[in-house]
Amino acid sequence: MQQISAGSLQSRLQSGEELNLLDVREEIEYHTYNIGGKNIPLSKLTEKSDFVHPNKTDEIIVICKAGLRSQTAQSILISNGYQNVKNLTGGLLALQKLQS
Predict the structure, then answer these.
(1) Closest of 74, 47, 44 to residue 59, by C-alpha
(2) E strands within the chain?
(3) Coil, strand, or helix at residue 5?
(4) Contact present, 67 and 52 (Cβ < 8 Å)
(5) In angstroms, rounded to a whole number, what is the distance separating the alpha carbons of residues 89 and 55?
(6) I need a labelling partner for 91 at 20 to 30 A (CA). Which of 22, 56, 65, 100 fits?
């Protein structure tokens, strides 16, 4: 399964690149802190996987707090036909460490 490091994601965000981010944390977590993207909690992802992105070949970067839920979400998306899904290694915690 494909991964993306916090450093790589940070560089891409800072360059202004438009990314397809999918945050699979619960809604309250997303509203507390987020870096943008679509929020579909992991608990609802199976029933809403078709709403993630219309093109199943586009890159999708899945994020969560520590990288575990996003890894599960990555598996769900791949099993639903998405072909270019990357998991943020270490999650948002790793990204926040770079920013401090």
Answers:
(1) 74
(2) 2-4, 21-23, 38-39, 59-63, 84-88
(3) coil
(4) no
(5) 24
(6) 56
Per-residue confidence band for 70, with pLDDT thresholds at 50, 70 and 90: very high
Residue 70 structure tokens: 């996003």
Angle ∠(94,96,97) on CA atoms, nearest 5: 65
**Closest residue by Cα to residue 80 from 58, 35, 48:** 48
Q: What is the pLDDT of residues 42-65, one digit of tens each?
A: 999 988 888 888 899 999 999 999
The DSSP 8-state label assigned to residue 41 in this structure reads: -
**Angle subtended at Cα 68 by Cα 8 and Cα 16, rounded to the nearest 5 degrees:** 25
**CB–CB of 93/65 below 8 Å?**
yes
Any idea which residue has 């969560």 for tokens? 64
Overall residue count recorded for the chain in this entry: 100
Residues of the chain above pLDDT 70, percent: 100
